[in-house]
């Protein structure tokens, strides 16, 4: 797990810390760096809708978006001056622990209409909603991201169209949590849902694109990998013009079906309006120890992971 912390994106890493992501038998969802996110058409509510103050620090929530693919809430810290950012921290190699900056988010307890997200699916990690944060446009800003587990195999529930989200957020160095009660309403415009059911094969691997859900804000992709139990396969996503797409979240698990197939659920930032398709490029990363099947990844001279792309499994995802 130590190496996974070092290479995962901020969203994936924070999701692990907050207890929302699916790991264990699941593959690592994302290894690309996540850029700070500015507001992007978060038009359900432009004003602060909830806030709480503890020890001279105020934490507020605003700019809520629920497009049917994911919930996004902007968080802002104000009041007492703090040197660290709201999502600040670093991995300590000596102690093997993640060290949070003072005043940064260290834990979230989230409830949907009073029910903890940790209770969904009977409490199984692979059946819970995903929860994470990513840096905002400034040090005192962050973005909370929440998505359901409905595309991870099995008969799992999607979020309701309307619900109350209660977030109890703990900041490093502050004793009591900040409690925010946030009304959530799904946008009127429904996602465009495509079901290509397209399969690519390579040796004993079968990769099937099941569903693509597109909105003005995001693209959600479900695909299934059969025969990949001994393989470390990760994924890049590019638009049809060769631009890499930012990942909002991504996870996968083999625990929700009796065949042991991997179900993957990736949510990407919406591409430009003229983009008609997305290319999914599976690859296997090289490890620093060439004889290892896990551990620290090998990096090139630019500090990027050395990747071996699996051309035969490459998929073209229509979004229109």
Topology readout:
Blueprint: H1 2-7, H2 10-18, E1 48-54, E2 57-66, E3 71-79, E4 89-92, E5 97-100, E6 105-112, E7 115-116, E8 130-135, E9 141-147, E10 162-171, E11 178-185, E12 192-194, E13 198-202, E14 205-214, E15 218-226, E16 234-239, E17 247-253, E18 262-269, E19 277-285, E20 307-309, E21 315-318
Antiparallel strand pairs: 1-2, 2-3, 3-9, 4-5, 6-7, 6-10, 8-9, 10-11, 12-14, 13-14, 14-15, 15-18, 16-19, 17-18, 19-20, 19-21
Radius of gyration: 19 Å
- Round the mean pLDDT to the nearest integer and report it: 85
| Structural shape | globular
The topology string of helices and strands comes to HHEEEEEEEEEEEEEEEEEEEEE
Assign the structural class, choosing from mainly alpha, mainly beta, alpha/beta, alpha+beta, or little secondary structure: mainly beta
Distance N terminus to C terminus? 38 Å
- DSSP summary, beta strand count: 21
Uncertain spans, ≥5 residues at pLDDT below 50? 1-45
Largest sheet: 6 strands, antiparallel
Helix fraction, binned, reads under 10%
Strand content: 35-45%
Give the number of helices: 2
- Tell me the count of domains: 2
Could you please describe the fold and organization of this structure?
With 320 residues, this protein is mainly beta. It has two domains: 184 residues, no CATH class; 127 residues, Sandwich (Immunoglobulin-like). 5% of the residues lie in helices and 43% in strands. The chain has two helices and 21 strands. A hairpin with a 4-residue loop joins strand 4 and strand 5. The protein is globular. The two termini are 38 Å apart. The N terminus is likely disordered.
């Amino acid at each position: 797990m130590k190496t996974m912390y070092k290479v995962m994106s901020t969203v994936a890493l924070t999701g692990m810390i907050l207890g929302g992501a699916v790991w264990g038998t699941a593959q690592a969802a994302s290894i690309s760096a996540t850029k700070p996110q500015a507001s992007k058409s978060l038009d359900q509510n432009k004003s602060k809708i909830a806030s709480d103050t503890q020890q001279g620090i105020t934490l507020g929530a605003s700019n809520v978006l629920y497009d049917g693919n994911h919930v996004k809430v902007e968080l802002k810290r104000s009041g007492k001056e703090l040197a660290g950012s709201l999502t600040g921290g670093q991995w300590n190699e000596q102690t093997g622990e993640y060290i949070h900056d003072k005043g940064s988010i260290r834990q979230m307890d989230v409830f949907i209409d009073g029910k903890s997200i940790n209770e969904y699916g009977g409490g199984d990690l692979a059946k819970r909603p995903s929860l994470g944060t990513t840096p905002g446009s400034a040090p005192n800003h962050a973005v909370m991201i929440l998505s359901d587990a409905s595309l991870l195999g099995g008969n799992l529930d999607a979020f309701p169209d309307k619900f109350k989200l209660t977030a109890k957020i703990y900041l490093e160095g502050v004793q009591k949590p900040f409690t925010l009660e946030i009304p959530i309403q799904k946008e009127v415009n429904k996602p465009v849902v495509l079901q290509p059911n397209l399969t690519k094969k390579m040796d004993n691997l079968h990769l099937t694109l099941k569903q693509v859900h597109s909105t003005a804000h995001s693209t959600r992709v479900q695909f299934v990998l059969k025969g990949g139990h001994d393989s470390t396969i990760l994924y890049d996503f590019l638009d049809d013009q060769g631009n890499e797409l930012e990942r909002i979240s991504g996870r996968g698990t083999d625990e929700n079906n009796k065949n042991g197939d991997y179900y993957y659920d990736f949510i990407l930032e919406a591409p430009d309006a003229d983009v008609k398709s997305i290319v999914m490029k599976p690859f296997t990363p090289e490890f620093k120890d060439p004889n290892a099947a896990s551990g620290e990844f090998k990096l090139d001279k630019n500090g990027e992971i050395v990747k071996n792309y699996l051309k035969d499994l490459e998929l073209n995802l229509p979004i229109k």
